[in-house]
Q: What sequence folds into this?
C-alpha cells in the first residue's frame, strides 16, 4: 500500500494523541513499518534514528528476536490465564522473581497492569485502602506536581499536573499539586540547591495547609519526563523524603520512564538516592514490545494489605498476562545478562552526556543541558546568560523537531526543551549520529531566527 493510502485511512479513522488533528491530516503522519536496533524505516524506505526509544520505552531497541521468541513460546504454552480468585501461573511468578531480584529488599509485592496510567490508578486505590485498613480513612488526599505526567485516564490525569489536560474535565477529587522543581524557568536568583529546597518545602506547606491527617501520599517522577525532562536539583529529593517521613505521608515514585536503566541505575530513584514506598512501572518493563505496567509495593504496605486487609477489591482481566510476563522476563534477563544497564552507567551514558556538553556548551540557542545516563534535555533560551526564555519557545522546539524528522532524526520537543532518550543498547556510533543530527537541527533553527 502507498504511504498516501495509509495516511488517508489514518485520517479517516484516527484521532492522534497530543497533536492538532486537522493540521496532522493536512501534513500526513509518517508511516513507520520496520525497526532494527535504534533505527526505524518508514513506508517509503526513509531511515530514522529513533532518539526517543519510541515513547521512552524501547529500552532494548527494535528487532529483538529473543523477546519475540519468548512471546511466541508463551502464546503456544498458555496464551491467557489470570490472577483473579485462586489461580496464578508460572510466567507471572517468574517475572516477579526476576523483578524483585533487581529491587532493594524493602520491596516485596507487585500488582500488574497493562499500562502506566493504570499503574497509577492502582496506586490511588491501594494507597487509600492502606490508610483505611489502618483506621485512617480520612487520609486520602494525594499530592502531585504541576506539569507532572502520570497518564491519561481520569485519575492519573488528575494526579498529573498538565493543566491543558485538566481542561477536558471529569477529574477525581482529593488531589492537590505543588510546583515542579524547574530551576531554569523559575529559580530566579536562587542557586539550584536553594531552589531545590524551596520547592521541596512547598510540600511541607501543602501538607500543613491540608492537615497531615488528610494527606495519603506524594507522587512524582524522580526526573520529570513528559513535562520537559527536568532534573531536580540534588537538594530536592532528600528534603522531600524527610518531609514525607515526618508527616507519615507515603512517598510514591512514578518510575514509568525512569525505570529499567534509563539513568544508568536500574531505577531513577536510586540515581537520586531516595527510598520510595511505591514504584509505578511500565514502558521499559517490556521494552515496549507488549503492553504491561505495574505497581510495586514496599513490605510495609504489602504486609498491611495482606495481613489485615481481607479482600483486595481490585482486578484487571489482563493483570500479569502470561505473554506480557514472558516478554518482561526476557527483557529483564537481556538488560541484565548483556550488561546493558551497567554499560549505560559506565560507558554510553557518560559518553552521551559529555558529547552534548562539548557540542552545545556556549551555543547561542542553548541555556541548559541536563541529563544522566541515556536521557538528556537541551533548553532553548533567548539569552542563556540571564536564562531568558523565548516567548514562542514551543514553536521553536517544534520547528527543531521537524527539521530533525526531515533529516532522519526523532527527538522530542516539550515547551522550550529538546529531549532525547535513545534505546539503552545504543553504541557510541549511534550516539555520535544522535548528537550530530541534533546539532544540525538546533543549528538550522538558530539560523532561521538569526542567532547563528
Ligand atoms: N507515568 C509517566 C511518568 C509517564 O511518562 C507515562 C507515559 O508517558 C505514564 C505514567 C502513563 O503510561 P501509559 O501511557 O502506559 O499509560
A:
Amino acid at each position: 500500500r502507498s504511504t498516501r493510502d495509509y495516511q488517508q485511512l489514518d485520517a479517516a479513522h484516527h484521532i492522534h494523541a497530543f497533536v492538532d488533528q486537522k493540521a496532522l491530516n493536512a501534513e500526513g503522519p509518517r508511516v513507520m513499518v520496520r525497526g532494527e536496533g535504534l533505527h526505524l524505516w518508514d513506508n517509503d524506505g526513509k531511515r530514522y534514528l529513533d532518539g526517543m526509544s519510541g515513547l521512552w520505552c524501547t529500552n532494548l531497541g527494535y528487532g529483538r528476536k529473543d523477546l519475540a521468541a519468548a512471546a511466541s513460546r508463551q502464546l503456544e504454552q498458555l496464551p491467557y490465564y489470570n490472577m483473579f480468585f485462586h489461580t496464578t501461573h508460572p510466567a507471572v511468578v517468574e517475572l516477579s522473581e526476576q523483578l524483585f531480584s533487581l529491587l532493594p529488599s524493602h520491596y516485596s509485592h507487585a500488582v500488574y497492569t497493562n499500562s502506566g496510567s493504570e499503574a497509577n490508578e492502582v496506586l490511588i486505590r491501594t494507597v487509600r485502602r492502606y490508610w483505611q485498613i489502618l483506621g485512617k480513612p480520612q487520609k486520602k488526599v494525594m499530592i502531585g506536581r504541576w506539569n507532572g505526567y502520570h497518564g491519561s485516564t481520569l485519575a492519573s490525569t488528575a494526579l498529573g499536573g498538565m493543566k491543558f489536560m485538566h481542561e477536558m474535565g471529569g477529574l477525581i477529587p482529593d488531589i492537590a499539586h505543588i510546583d515542579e522543581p524547574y530551576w531554569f524557568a523559575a529559580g530566579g536568583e536562587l542557586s539550584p540547591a536553594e531552589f531545590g529546597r524551596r520547592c521541596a518545602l512547598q510540600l511541607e506547606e501543602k501538607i500543613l495547609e491540608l492537615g497531615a491527617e488528610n494527606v495519603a501520599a506524594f507522587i512524582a517522577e524522580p526526573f520529570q519526563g513528559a513535562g520537559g525532562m527536568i532534573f531536580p536539583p540534588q537538594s530536592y529529593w532528600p528534603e522531600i523524603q524527610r518531609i514525607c517521613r515526618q508527616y507519615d505521608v507515603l512517598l510514591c515514585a512514578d518510575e514509568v520512564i525512569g525505570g529499567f536503566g534509563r539513568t544508568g541505575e536500574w531505577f531513577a530513584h536510586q540515581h537520586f538516592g531516595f527510598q520510595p514506598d511505591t514504584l509505578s512501572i511500565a514502558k521499559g518493563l517490556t521494552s515496549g514490545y507488549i503492553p504491561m505496567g505495574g505497581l510495586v509495593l514496599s513490605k510495609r504496605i504489602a504486609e498491611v494489605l495482606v495481613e489485615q486487609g481481607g479482600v483486595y477489591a481490585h482486578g484487571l482481566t489482563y493483570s500479569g498476562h502470561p505473554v506480557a510476563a514472558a516478554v518482561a522476563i526476557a527483557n529483564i534477563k537481556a538488560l541484565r545478562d548483556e550488561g546493558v544497564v551497567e554499560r549505560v552507567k559506565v560507558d554510553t551514558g557518560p559518553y552521551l552526556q559529555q558529547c552534548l556538553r562539548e557540542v552545545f556548551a556556549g551555543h547561542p540557542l542553548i541555556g541548559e543541558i541536563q541529563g544522566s545516563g541515556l536521557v538528556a534535555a537541551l533548553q532553548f533560551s533567548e539569552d542563556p546568560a540571564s536564562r531568558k526564555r523565548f516567548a514562542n519557545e514551543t514553536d521553536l522546539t517544534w520547528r527543531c523537531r521537524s527539521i530533525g524528522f526531515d533529516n532522519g532524526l526523532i527527538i522530542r520537543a516539550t515547551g522550550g526543551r529538546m529531549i532525547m532518550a535513545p534505546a539503552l543498547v545504543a553504541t557510541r556510533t549511534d550516539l555520535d549520529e544522535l548528537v550530530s543530527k541534533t546539532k544540525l537541527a538546533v543549528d538550522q533553527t538558530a539560523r532561521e531566527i538569526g542567532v547563528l
Q: What stands out?
A: The mean pLDDT is 98. The pocket of pyridoxal-5'-phosphate is lined by residues 55, 115-117, 149-151, 221, 225-226, 254, 256-257, 282, 293 (CB under 6 Å). The two ends are 42 Å apart (CA to CA).
